[in-house]
Amino acid sequence: MAAPRFDLPTVEDETRPFWDAAAEGRLLIQRCNACDQWQYYPRPFCKRCWSEDLEWAEASGKGTIYTFSIVRRNDLPPFGDRVPYVPAIIDLEEGPRMMSEVVDAALESIEVGQAVVVDFREIDDELKRPVFRPA
Fold first, then answer.
1. Around Cβ 122, how many Cβ atoms within 10 Å?
2. How many CB atoms lie under 10 A from the CB of residue 91?
3. Which of 51, 60, 71, 125 has the smallest CB count inside 10 Å?
């Protein structure tokens, strides 16, 4: 029996456009047509004006590191095989903050305020997740 995985997202109808686009290498986030607010994580209404007139729009994929941590030990599968890794909160150019991971960077070179761009990594045969690498 395979060990349970703790890195698999729950894909629901409300989030499917996000995951489908990620599988194609595109970062989609929601934008409100009533007040032009961008938002992430997906919701059924705008967090600013409560309008339900939302659309999925492609984000630039550019951002900066708001904060990060270096994880050197994690016993949950499959994270133990990936240590050290860098979870981070990214300020997207469009405004929202997104929890993700910084990849392809020397640990000592990562810093708050650093410019990053989106990339995508396979989770399994069907899903990819957005990660960020130095710009």
1. 10
2. 17
3. 125
Whether 7 maps to a domain, the answer reads no
Residue 17 in 3-state DSSP? Answer: helix
Report field, pTM of the whole predicted structure over 0.70? yes
Whole-angstrom distance, CA of residue 39 vs CA of residue 95: 8
What domain range includes position 127? 16-134
The Cα 109–Cα 105 span in angstroms is: 7
Q: Please state, rounded to an integer, the average pLDDT across all residues of the chain.
A: 95
pLDDT tops 70 at residue 104: yes
Residue 33 has what DSSP assignment? T
CATH number of the domain at 89, please: 2.40.50
Q: Do the domain assignments include residue 85?
A: yes
**49: pLDDT confidence band, cut at 50, 70 and 90?**
very high
Distance (Å, rounded) from C-alpha 10 to C-alpha 123? 12
C-alpha–C-alpha distance, residues 29 and 131, integer Å: 14
For position 3, what pLDDT does the model report? 74
Structural domains of the chain, count: 1
